[in-house]
Prior knowledge:
The protein is 30% helix and 26% strand. The chain contains 18 helices and 33 strands. The strands form ten sheets. The protein has a five-stranded mixed beta barrel with strand order 3-4-5-7-6. A five-stranded antiparallel β-sheet has the order 10-9-8-11-12, covered by helices on one side. Helix 10 packs across helix 11, helix 12 runs antiparallel to helix 14 and helix 13 (505-515) packs antiparallel against helix 14 (521-530).
Amino acid sequence: MSIPAKSEILDWLKANPRATGKREIARAFNIKGAGRIELKRLLKEMQDEGLITKRQKRLRPPGEMPPVAMLKALPPDADGDVFAEPEKWENEEEPPRILFLPKKGDPALGPGDRFLARLRPVEGEFALNYEARLIKKIRAEPNRILGIFRETKEGARILPISKKSDKEWMVPAGAAKGAKDGELVEAEQLPGPRMGLPRAKVTERLGDPSAPRQISLIALHEHEIPDAFSDKVIAEAEAATPASIDGREDLRGIPLLTIDPPDARDHDDAVAALPDDDPTNPGGYIVWVAIADVAHYVRPGSALDREARLRGNSTYFPDRVSSMLPEALSADLCSLHEGRERACLAIRMVLKANGEKVSHRVTRGLMRSAASLTYQQAQAVADDVLDLTPELNQAVNHLYAAYQAVAASRNRRGPLELDLPERRVELNEDGQVVAIRLRERLDAHRLIEEFMILANVAAAEELEVRHRPCLYRVHEEPNPDKLDALRETVEGLGLVLAKGQAVRTSHLNQLLDAARGTDAEELVNMQVLRAQTQAYYAVENFGHFGLNLAKYAHFTSPIRRYADLVVHRALMGELSAEDIDNLPQTAEQISKTERRSMGAERDTVDRYVAHFLSDREGAEFPGRISGIAKFGLFVRLDETGADGLVPISTLGREYFHYDPEQMILIGERSRTCFSVGQRAVVRLAEATPITGGLLFELLSAEGAGQTPRRGKGLGASPRRKLAKSRISKAKAARKARRR
């Protein structure tokens, strides 16, 4: 019996990564009895020399990974590949380079996500290189933080800017990266004891947090939205050249117009309407919707394509935009500028006089925008208060005439008629907020919306006719529990939502009509919106509840939405087999990035509003109670549409009972009742631009002294409560049986 050489042991360990204990080594080399003592000494010597490491009773060459390991995903590289690193790495060497190879059906991995993976060594230019296959994704806790760096007597601290976090983070000595007191910093969580404050190290200094232009930067970092393109992506975009007429239908003679907001950063859709001269379609119209042909420039598998899919969509802020595509495309070659020849994908639709679509066809064309108008300009032409040229005036009037027919068809279809004012932040050249206004709603806005909906429906129909895969825009019916909550809320306002039947948009529209013109109008609109499910992208068609449409796909904004680019490729037959296989993952990815952008845009507006109101602390504002929680009231201001909190501790020196069913707070002693929808006057106590938080002091609330109706809320009798409980249980049982 002979003891193997060190090189032989190393070769065996590399060839047998799954069996690396001392017992397995001894068995492999037929070492028995006293020889095992010598083997143990030899292995200890190899450890001391750094030839092998011991982890969890396993021996392996230093830096070598086990066949199954816990990994942490890194941000995608410029090529869109996702690499990972070991979750725990204690060696002095650099961690191995591990490429994640997703299989069909694997969930998407974001930066910082932890996952259990099966590893396979790969020979290459790196000393240690692995491919990883997903076994199980482990939901990762947030490990990044954005906050204000503070020097305190107890040491350095970071105060989070998120309204969802009120816990300070401790910065150990040497982990501040030179940050100064009051600076905005990005930090990364450090391992530490469970008790006490969490620890973090500063990874990036971002400057003065009070500067207005930092507000959108905060949102970009907080929501991890990319804001810069790699050199490779920019080079691809800048190398693109204008498309020629070859293989395209010539649409340059059609009076296509772009109609956008005054501050539009890109123009990806143009519309035109012409009276139909077909005698079999009296009073009918031919409507053209032409969309920038982004698919011509962004080819599958390119760096541009990988980056666009990674971003999913553009994110818009009052002072900047994080674009899905570089400016060379989004603001130039793919933007339908007035008088410039541009490649497009167009849908020609024939409509009856009543707005019903007779037919459509899809074509790849070359167009020239006759004019770039704002919504206000188009509306002014239609109202005869603005005179352009005879040709442009006629083009606008034809659009409005066709819109009247489409609007009649829309009314018969009966989509959800929500009317929610949208806040618009106005900035000056220095980035300072000068006003918070509500966006006006003109017929020009509705005209473009309806023509875009027509085109989106036509695109979905065309893909089904051609039996091609499609990314549908799905909006499912409201959840029954949310409808029950909505029903409770509106009953407290004296309104009724029918029950005992499948809910339709017509039922919700009846409720909205009943509230129209009353003090509760805005509140009911908001509550109906909150009862809706969130729209998403899917390869299966579940319909669009809000629009009351059986099939719907996004086709009209490929500059700013990856879903539309996928639909364009599908229409042109340019989806590869790999693209088709990955459609479910693509749908999940872009649904996720859409939600991310919505959160970032909403948080940014909140912060700008808080910044705008920060010098008006102590001022009084009229508003309305928009929400009730066990910790206080939310009041929405009439002037800006901003929401702020009235803490329950400031409502009076008594205990307030919270009734979540009726959404009310009732004073135990005074029986003062606060409910959703009440008019209120508040004083601004505190505005925090960093978090976007507003704190109010309640001065008065209309009808706050009224107690709840008999048999409702805390005034309900025990027998009534028992009956309601039995009814609820019976409902739950029926739902279970139906499932």
